[in-house]
Design goal:
Blueprint: H1 20-30, H2 35-42, H3 46-60, H4 65-78
């Protein structure tokens, strides 16, 4: 597995090439919400949230949400973005 933890920004300015919706889901994932809670917050189904999380895991090249959260915390800290606002 490649270490993309300090990867450069993607051409569109988003780290790891995350879409806007994936970034919203990522912020909620970092804040510790369950898929159901994320779905309610974003007015999506839990299955759609799970699909977005799978996309995030693939783009970060990690096997688990736990590992993704570690990377995403660093990403949000580097951008001075806090998951809760």
């Amino acid at each position: 597995m490649k270490n993309r933890r300090r990867s450069a920004a993607a051409p569109n300015g988003d780290h790891f090439g995350l879409t806007g919706r994936e970034r919203e889901v990522a912020r909620l994932l970092v804040s510790g919400l369950t898929y159901k809670e994320m779905a309610e917050a974003l007015n999506l189904s839990a299955n759609t949230v799970a699909t977005h999380v799978k996309g995030i895991l693939a783009k970060l090249d990690v096997p688990s949400s736990r590992r993704a959260v570690l990377i995403l915390r660093d990403l949000f800290d580097d951008e001075n973005i806090h998951p809760n606002g």
